[in-house]
Amino acid sequence: MDKIIALTRQQREDILQQLRPDQVQALSEFTRYAMLSRFHTHHYLKQTDWEFQGMVIDPWYQRQHDHPGDNLYCDCGRRLKNQFILRSRTTGQQLFLGISHFQQHASIPHKVAREIQAGINEINLYMDSILLAYQAGRRFPQEIFQFVVVQQGFKNHEGTILYQRCNLFSRVDLPLHQRDYQDLQTLYHQLKQGVTHRLTKEEIKQLRDDIATDWRQVDQQITMFNYLLRQHGLTVQDLHRIKSNSINYALQRRKTRFMIHDYKQFKDVTLTKARSQLAIKLRQLSFYLQIFQPNELAKVQCEQAQQILIAHKVSTHKSHFYGIKEAQVLLKIKYTI
Known about the structure:
Elements: H1 9-16, H2 21-42, E1 50-57, E2 72-73, E3 79-80, E4 82-88, E5 94-97, H3 102-106, H4 110-135, H5 142-150, H6 161-172, H7 178-192, H8 201-231, H9 236-250, H10 271-292, H11 299-311, H12 322-336
Antiparallel strand pairs: 1-4, 2-3, 4-5
């Protein structure tokens, strides 16, 4: 059993000060992804009027003023490290809250808020182990990872948190958690021995469920971008135009126009189609990232979208697609009036 060591706030900050900005952002994305996964798995808000729409993390929270990011705030005005975005199922109202105000502003039971906080604490412990490993001189196992990639060892593991964390951490040279490192080593040794694994029906179902969860999280990120567009005065027609262009961009060079619009549809598709639908959704996210990036109107959301694409090994090069330029013009007009 792994020994659990919890860092104090000051100890955590001392190690974070040693990290580069891209390493801090990668850790932040790992934390956000893990928390989103818990929300989807535990259905915390099932018995309430509220649905979970997303989460934003300020990786620079400890540095109140001297940092490159934007501060996050609760609807009450208090500065936040973790900002949860909730939407009322009956009225459509959106709330931007810290965990301590779930009960006060959204009437969410204290027990549910405690469960969510316990999840955050568990994830923080996991992150502390990574920081301690970094302080001890450990870095990302590049050789092992590259061997597994070249040998297509992730072919049936691309929906796993391990694969996505490896993509994030390999880029910034952060060490893996011990359990992740052991899982990576297991894959490495299997490939070295020429062991090929044939997926069982249960494993295929689990992989499809993992892909559906990833799709859902990407969809929530896109929802946040559309919310920002509405907040900044674009008309219904403008919003519809941008959304249509994002779908056209996502489906470029594909033989089919089929596109899933609800994660529940994944239960009726094959594993191949599930992978294809996730790729389409990630490309749609890339569209929104590109239309926002030049204006820096949503710096935190853009950083998170960038990390999501990196985690899925999706290229983020700039496109000359007409719909992107059209959306950029619409945004520029609204922000110069």
